[in-house]
Write a structure and sequence with these properties.
magnesium ion binding, disordered N terminus, EC 4.1.1.31, Phosphoenolpyruvate carboxylase, PEPCASE_His_AS, de novo design (two linked rop proteins), eight-stranded parallel barrel, PEP_COase, mainly alpha, globular
Length: 882
């Protein structure tokens, strides 16, 4: 990493920090800024190992007058968000900067050259990219703590940094950009960073569409243009016009798993919003094309289409514009609950694509290729990726909700109690009904409100074009009957539309049985006939890690994928694996390139679906340059995994993993499930109780309001441990597993062999190393000191911290390093820069939690808001929430 790159990042952090300081001084006076500087100085020196400064920091924070607590938390929160902008800007500007391991992510051009060296023909490269189907599924998991109004200001601040950097020879431009920067930072400072109300599912969908409008609409054609240029150099041809190696789907407005706020009505509204937004964006493209395509030379096909006119392209585009305007008006009328009485509208992708393709072919036929491959090609690429709906909307519902419908139905028809039937009886009944031509559900069937909602969702499916919808995902799927039930409901209520049905396997037990379940399913002729020889299966990362611990879950996910690949090969069925990853390591997060290449060989065969969640959507796709890099990383990884798959693990590595996972699982369960002090400790030491008041997303934080850790969603579970820097879910159990193996003969050698030769294990260790570097047991100990009274709970906390410290030693031993992140200086620097700004927020959060508990949750609105801001600031500083 060259020195000047780091300097560029530091310069921008300083520019933004100085501007924030001036803004705060204007608002609250220089003396307040001096207080902030005193706090930061204590924190910085404390980080250098000065324990006196650490104590002085805590003492200083505890003596702050109450009126200062909110502005102090806001100042540190704002700085951390500005530091993120500087880092994001840096990554976009220097696109080849490696975030994780130096040299681990090749540029696409390098990869294409490598693929040819091992015998792939240029034609094979083009075909592989043309047939690639990577779907990035934007989900509304409540991990985005920053309000949309602030995100827009932060994007504008990023633009100011670009203007300042490019104004070396134009000082007046630089001065204007600096002035605008000061204005935007002042706007951000004077804007409330915490939402006052939870977003609705429709708000979340609007946020997702805004990412497409503001970033992906530009990044998608840029990505294809870069790909075309590479292929022209490598293979002498472009990507086919209708190819879309990377597409986008969404769960926003379709994910009803445990979220009572997502109803059939909401799903319908979100689908209409997508149609309205797509029409609005295409209208801008078509207006530009109408302005630019003023040529008169055209081929006979286009002339036959438009007649003898002077400007044939404009004539065709005018017709398309009229239909597109009608489509936008229709969608708006539907959203407003009005009747639409306008002209014909565009219903399918081909209705936009065909006229644009006619223009493209005509321009090429008359020798105007340069014009054809300009703005017109960009629009064709957008149509191939975004269709008429911007994203395909997935639907997700729990298996138990479908079973409830069948129970009510069989009971009301006098057929018995579905819930009491064996799996074999259920399958026989469902398959018979799938074959039957008569309807099963009576026309005026009286059922519960919950079942009516399920039925209404399938009615929405029936009313839609198939291209508007993605996959129907069944969470907590455990048996073939869970999939057959959805297939039957789709047949009974969903009309002609048949969506792919993906069971989601997410607990340890379900992952272990995933291969058997899909094998049984594909062996059923009645089901196989519905699949068109394609099967999608979703692998859950969050709940399996919460259920079993990270190490055992990661190995179970790997084995489940292997089993599914083998089963689908045996049945001659194309498998698409859908990875339900979160942003954090504890929920399967991490660098996309490494994650994809660490999957079992054959599991990424040109197709892949993966969730992009919460704040990760903004970090990866929030700006065109970053989105372009993210798409390149996905295309690279999937191409590499398809053409140059990783080696299968050696048999003795598998045995090692079986043992490591067994020990880690037992250690994890021994604490989380079996120690009676664990849940009380978790509730006492983390801000879990206060988290529910942070209006992050539309879903409740718990599946049920009573019970222990199992009732908590994976996101607040991870969020709470992240806030106190213990990060427990992502490492608990690993230390025992590795320590035990290191004590045995040959342990160190075999672990190091697996690390260097097996991408799955190497990636796991890299993620563990990064997580250990972000964690901080001294901070966790301070929360305990401030918030936990009971001796037995304190004893548990001490044991957990000792386990963490042992794990750190063990990981350094395996990696043969003196300190964490030795080989990834950019991440090390990012953590070091942020720590002096995060530490005061931890101190303030512990103080505010204690005051909140003393007041039985009745602290003043300002203090309550300050507590929320500490959560937002710590999340921003660590670059992840859940």
């Amino acid at each position: 990493m060259s020195h000047d790159l780091h300097e560029s990042l530091r310069d921008n952090v300083r520019i933004l920090g100085d501007s924030l300081g001036r803004t705060i001084a204007d608002d609250l006076g220089q003396s307040f800024v001096d207080k902030i500087e005193t706090i930061r100085a204590h924190a910085k020196r404390g980080r250098q190992g000065d324990s006196l400064q650490q104590r002085q920091l805590i003492e200083y924070l505890r003596q702050l007058p109450e009126r200062d607590l909110l502005p102090v938390t806001r100042a540190f929160n704002q700085f951390l968000n500005l530091a993120n902008i500087a880092e994001q800007h840096y990554r976009a500007r220097f696109r080849r900067v490696e975030d994780y391991k130096p040299g681990s992510q090749p540029a696409l051009g390098e990869l294409l050259a490598r693929a040819q060296q091992v015998g792939n023909s240029p034609r094979k490269l083009v075909e592989t990219l043309a047939n690639m189907r990577v779907e990035l599924v934007l989900t509304a998991h409540p991990t985005e703590v920053i309000r949309r109004t602030l995100i827009q200001k932060y994007d504008a601040i990023d633009e100011c940094l670009t203007a300042i950097e490019s104004s070396e020879d134009y000082p007046e431009r630089g001065a204007r950009a600096q002035g605008r920067l000061e204005e935007l930072i002042s706007q951000a400072w004077h804007t409330d960073e915490i939402r006052h109300e939870r977003p609705t599912p429709v708000d979340e969908a609007k946020w997702g569409f805004a990412v497409i409008e503001n970033s992906l609409w530009q990044a998608v054609p840029d990505f294809h243009r870069d790909l075309d240029n590479l292929l022209l150099d490598t293979a002498g041809e472009r990507l086919p016009l209708d190819a879309a190696p990377i597409r986008y789907a969404s769960w926003m407005g379709g994910d009803r798993d445990g979220n009572p706020n997502v109803t059939a009505k909401v799903t319908q509204e979100v689908l209409l919003l997508g149609r309205w937004m797509a029409a609005d964006l295409y209208l801008r493209d078509l207006e530009q094309l109408k302005t630019e395509l003023s040529m008169w030379k055209a081929n006979s096909a286009l002339k036959a289409e438009v007649g003898d006119v002077a400007e044939p392209y404009r004539e065709l585009l005018k017709r398309l514009l009229t239909k597109m305007e009608a489509t936008r008006d229709w969608a708006k009328a539907q959203l407003d609950g009005r009747n639409y009485d306008g002209g014909p509208i565009i219903e399918t992708r081909d209705q936009i694509y065909a006229p644009l393709l006619a223009c493209y072919r005509s321009l090429c036929d008359v020798g105007l290729d340069t014009i054809a491959n300009g703005a017109l090609l960009d629009t064709l690429r957008r149509v191939a990726v975004f269709g008429v709906t911007l994203t395909k909307l997935d639907l997700r519902q729990e298996a138990s909700r479908h079973a409830q419908v069948m129970e009510e139905l069989t009971s009301s028809l006098g057929l018995g109690h579905y819930q009491e039937w064996s799996e074999t009886q259920r399958q026989e009944f469902l398959l018979a009904e799938l074959e039957s031509r008569r309807p099963l559900i009576p026309r005026r069937w009286e059922c519960s409100a919950e079942s009516r909602e399920v039925i209404d969702t399938f009615k929405v499916i029936a009313q839609e074009h198939a291209e508007a919808l993605g996959t129907y995902i069944i969470s907590m799927a455990a048996e073939p009957s869970d999939v057959l039930t959805v297939a039957l409901l789709m047949k009974e209520v969903g009309g002609q539309v048949t969506l792919p049905i993906a069971p989601l396997f997410e607990t340890l037990n379900d992952l272990d049985h995933a291969g058997d379940v899909v094998d049984q399913l594909l062996a059923l002729p009645g089901y196989r006939a519905l699949t068109k020889d394609r099967q999608e299966v979703m692998i859950g990362y969050s709940d399996s890690a919460k259920d079993a611990g990270q190490l055992a879950a990661a190995w179970a996910q790997y084995r489940a994928q292997e089993a599914l690949v083998n089963v689908c090969e045996k049945h001659g069925v194309d498998l698409t694996l859908f990875h339900g990853r979160g942003g954090t390591v504890g929920r399967g997060g991490g660098p996309a390139h490494a994650a994809i290449l660490s999957q079992p060989p054959g599991s990424v065969n040109g197709s892949l679906r993966v969730t992009e969640q919460g704040e990760m959507i903004r970090f990866k796709f929030g700006q065109p340059d970053i989105a372009l890099r993210s798409m390149e990383i996905y295309a690279c990884a999937v191409l590499e995994a398809t053409l140059l798959p990783p080696p299968a693990p050696e048999p003795h590595w598998r045995e090692e993993m079986d043992q490591l996972a067994k020990v880690a699982h037992a250690a994890y369960v021994g604490v989380v499930r079996e120690d009676p002090d664990f849940v009380p400790y978790f509730r006492a030491v983390t801000p879990e109780g206060a988290l529910g008041r942070l209006p992050l997303g539309s879903r409740p934080t718990k599946r049920r309001q009573d019970g222990g850790v199992e009732t908590l969603r994976a996101i607040p579970w991870i969020f709470a441990w992240t806030q106190i820097r213990l990060m427990l879910p992502a490492w608990l159990g690993s230390g025992e597993a590795f320590s035990r193996r290191l004590e045995q003969p040959g342990g160190r050698e075999v672990l190091q062999e697996m690390r260097t030769q097996w991408p799955f294990f190497g990636t796991y260790l890299d993620m563990l190393e990064m997580l250990l570097a972000k964690a901080d047991v001294a901070i966790a100990a301070y929360y305990e000191h401030r918030l936990v009274d009971e001796p037995s709970l304190k004893a548990l906390g001490k044991k957990l911290r000792e386990r963490f410290e042992r794990l750190e030693d063990v990981v350094l031993d395996i990696l043969q390093q003196e300190k964490l992140l030795e080989n990834t200086p950019l991440i090390r620097q990012a953590i070091d820069v942020r720590n002096p700004y995060i530490d005061p927020l931890h101190g303030l959060q512990a103080e505010l939690l204690q005051r909140n508990r003393d007041a039985d949750g009745a602290i003043s609105p300002d203090l309550s808001r300050a507590l929320m801001v500490t959560m937002a600031g710590i999340a921003a500083g660590l670059r992840n929430t859940g």
